[in-house]
Specification:
single chain, alpha/beta, Rossmann fold, 6-stranded parallel sheet, disordered N terminus, EC 2.4.1.182, transferase, glycosyltransferase, lipid-A-disaccharide synthase activity, Glyco_trans_19
């Protein structure tokens, strides 16, 4: 099949697509795939700086390999999940996993060194596509410097995609800052439905692909007779309790202290003191502590567990079925704000969301934020469905009180469970679910319904303007 001609690829439903959301898939002589075809491979430089980004990027890599009519070669920065898809990271991803203002200062020199190293590596790799995943502090600097480097050399620049739009809707003046991104970002892959319109209205091309957490549903519910629109995962809590010898009458509280070392070191002591306060009210209290697939975090939690006030079980990250089994075995969860709040919604496990940072970072957040919530479910519903204990209010005494209230109040638990379905529907690309797309060079159609598959097909069908 010649890539030079412009085609419309017809599929079973007789509907055609320009991208997964339009009626036609146009593959022109200016497309990424066509440019790569001349060289016999598609080179993708991909960067993720955090555990959640590592998961998103790894799934995108897998989807690109499934959809691409050409062999793909990857280079960039990532973690253990991306390495399973064939990436040899330039350096440990943890070297750039820093968030905050004051928290960044001790790492600033190293941050700049790694940024320069990444720019050099990307330029010499000669990619057709550069994809940065979240971690906007590092990602945007990388894309900006790389674009400037290509402009200086007067050579054709690769297409720049950024996966996970910056939360412009959360900050004062956030939307105005989108205009400047168009200078070095060609396309944004959005995970929330309101972000696509917000980006486009500010001159930034964007596509809503759905929230990455939905991938867990499709992966873990495969083969089960579960209605996809329910967007729910039911783990096997009974087996989990048996495997870890948890007494039948025990109260199990899941703890998720965060995926970054700075989060874990700040939050875990608070969680420990909270459990110390609760153990008198719950004599058979057991904690399940989820350890992110970050070696620094793993080492810190493993050392800390020696002084834990109640029996605790450590669960390694990167094993979805084990994570959801643990959720199903728990009464409630105590978590640091992040993607885990959405995972707990999938599991329908009532939770309490917390967050602490350096006081300068906290002051900045309170000054610049224009929304009253920090957890995404509350933001999406514009309602405090999930209790939050933030900043100075995040104390062991306060957390113990809120957890006891949540465990004893069935109405509060039910409120979270009912709201979860609405949250999942909001982040789902339901109007694209079940669509089939045939890509040039493929022998058969592939299902396009996961966020990563939609993102991959958007990248592959991108045409230079």
């Amino acid at each position: 099949m010649s890539f030079a001609a412009i085609r419309c690829i017809r599929i079973k439903s007789s509907i055609c697509f320009k991208n997964p959301f339009r009626r036609y898939l146009w593959v022109s002589s200016r497309s990424i795939v066509d440019s790569a075809a001349k060289e016999g491979e598609l080179r993708v430089f991909i960067v993720a700086g955090e555990v959640s980004g590592d998961t998103i990027a790894s799934r995108l890599m897998a989807s690109l390999k499934k959809l691409s009519p050409l062999p793909i070669r990857f280079s960039g920065v990532g973690g253990s999940m991306m390495s399973k898809q064939g990436l040899k990271s330039l350096f440990p991803m943890e070297n750039i996993a820093v968030m905050g203002i004051w928290e960044l200062l001790p790492h600033l020199y190293n941050f700049r060194v790694k940024l320069k190293e990444t720019v050099e590596a990307a330029f010499h790799f000669k990619p057709h596509v550069v994809v940065t995943v979240d971690s906007k502090g590092f990602s945007f600097r990388l894309l900006k410097q790389l674009r400037a480097r290509y402009n200086q050399q007067s050579s054709d620049a690769p297409v720049h995609f950024h996966y996970v739009a910056p939360s412009f809707w959360a900050w004062k003046g956030g939307e105005a800052r989108l205009k400047g991104l168009a200078e070095f970002v060609d396309h944004v892959l959005c995970i929330l439905p309101n972000e696509e319109a917000g980006c486009r209205s500010n001159g930034l091309a964007a596509t809503f692909v759905g929230h990455p957490v939905l991938e867990d549903v499709l992966e873990l519910n495969m083969g089960k007779e579960t209605a996809l629109h329910e967007w729910q995962i039911t783990g096997n809590g009974e087996n989990f309790r048996k495997e870890y010898a948890i007494p039948s009458g025990a109260t199990v509280i899941t703890l998720l202290p965060g995926s970054r070392l700075q989060e874990a070191t700040r939050m875990l002591p608070i969680f420990s003191n909270t459990m110390k306060l609760l153990k008198s009210s719950f004599p058979e209290l057991v904690n399940v502590i989820h350890v992110a697939p970050n070696q620094l975090v793993d080492n810190f939690i493993t050392r800390s567990i020696n002084k834990w006030p109640v029996p605790a079980i450590l669960i390694p990250g990167g094993i979805p079925h084990l994570k959801y089994d643990a959720f199903d075995a728990s009464q409630v969860a105590l978590c640091t704000s992040g993607t885990v709040a959405m995972e707990l919604q999938l599991a329908r496990l009532p939770c309490l969301v917390t967050y602490r940072a350096h006081f300068i970072t906290e002051w900045f957040i309170q000054y610049k934020a224009k929304i009253p919530y920090i957890s995404l479910p509350n933001i999406l519903l514009d309602s405090p469905v999930i209790p939050e204990a933030l900043f100075q209010a995040c104390t062991p005494t306060k957390l113990a009180f809120l957890l006891m209230e949540l465990m004893s109040n069935k109405a509060l638990q039910e409120q979270q469970i009912v709201a979860a379905k609405s949250v999942m529907e909001l982040i789902s690309p339901s109007n694209r679910t079940g669509t089939n797309l045939a890509h040039p060079g493929m022998m058969s159609t592939l299902p396009i319904y996961t966020p990563s598959m939609i993102a991959a097909s958007t990248i592959l069908s991108y045409a230079r303007r």
